[in-house]
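Hey, quick one: can you model this chain's 3D structure?
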Amino acid sequence: MGKFLLHSTLCIPSTSILASTSEKGLDEKINEAFMPFAVWWENLILAEVPIFGHGIPIILIILILGALFFTVYFGFVNIRHFPTAIQVVRGKYDELEKTAPKLKPQVYEVEGDLVDTIKDEGHSGEVNHFQALATAVSGTVGLGNIAMVAVAISFGGPGATFWMILAGLLGMSTKFVECTLGVKYRDIDTNGNVFGGPMYYLSRGLKQRGFSCLGKFLAAVFAILCVGASFGGGNAFQSNQAAAQIIERFGLSGDATGSIIGLVFAILAGIVIIGGIKRIAKVTEKVVPLMAVLYVGAALFIILSKIEWVDDAFALIFKEAFTPEATITGGFVGVMIQGFRRAAFSNEAGAGSAAIAHAAVNTSFPASEGLVGLLEPFIDTVLVCTMTAVVIILFNMDGVFVYGNVVEGQALMADGSRLGGVNITSLAFESSINGSSYVLMAAVCLFAFSTILSWSYYGLQAWKYLFGRSKISDLTYKIIFLLFTVLGAAITLDAVIKFSDAMILALVFPNMAGLLILFPYVKKEFKGYMHLIAKK
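Sure thing. Here's the predicted structure for all 536 residues.
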């Protein structure tokens, strides 16, 4: 029956109330306007080729084969030199910087002008090894480790965890290559400000190999996509999932609640990013350890409290990796795709984004930072993602939700309701430790905030490569970036996943093309640095 209002002595149908109840809220309107573009972009970037009767995204084939090639070519650097990487971060080899030869001036062409970098380029930088790692880790260790793991398991079951771990191990080698190149081809102005990342090693490195036009084209494509990725996976997805946790924990409601939370995040982020990489590094080197202890500590407590079930969880991971449940779409290949896809989003190996942060390090040896960079996928995927996955699998031993039964990014729960992303992880934590969902909420907000900070720097570097290094260019980017912080909190998880996934994965096309051409230069840098270490 329709609603009625009593006016004087007459009962008049309240058409105005009927209209208002069906009128869509602000967040819903924003989502409907954004969804068509998100769907189109996802379909474009994740185009598939049929292999053994299954459609496999071309982008994943490039990532997997490229990472495998680098792992073999560099003699399993991801495993053999893992201890060396830790020693570099600890500063064991810092005295080698004092013996570094003075580098000759390098003249590069940037934005049509010849730019003479400072002569002692190798001895310049803005942050130390740990700060560079902290900034890059804060950009990779984010909600992908909490929300995207839940998405991967919802879609692909426990077996997706196996493929995530494998992708993380292989991705260590790819990260080593891109971070080495990030330092080798960076640009440092007369004020000591560093400009680096794939935009520079694509344009400069490929020119050195005789592919000048190709290098300029790939660098421009990467820069455009990197700006988009900073708006999507590095920003909108983060504020989306942080808002989801805050709304869930405090039972908030309202048409514009998400937008308001996003606005608060935007204001806080704006205060920090105005200060540039040095301020971002100072914040992230404090926030990253805090959030790591907070989140990893809670996850380990849950795992240890259910230690008798952990072997069953891992047995399920290995079994389901090759023989998944019938409800999993795509079978074995579908599970593998989910694992690699979510790992790629989480650790960004092959996307080249972290090389932008690593380029700012104060070192004379590019390979030293390449070694530091390979620690990222290990920390991000092999450790943090695996812990999250085990917690969720332990939680779902009794079938709280149905693997593979997903609609709009949300899993079907046993009670008939639907839950998605970070809220599944939150429920898993709360079921083991009363009140831990609030601890997780705090961790989620810290993860989201630190990732937004790091990606603001990545996107800004790409923006400046495209539009110049003026103050107006700087401010324009930051305003647009902060608007996406608000937008992300207002749209649905399904829309933001489609846009974020595709934006970050799109970076792989230009970046991997460059890595597969420039890897011999990495070999030369690596051999030289290891020779110095051996002489020490």
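One thing worth noting: The longest strand covers residues 401-407.
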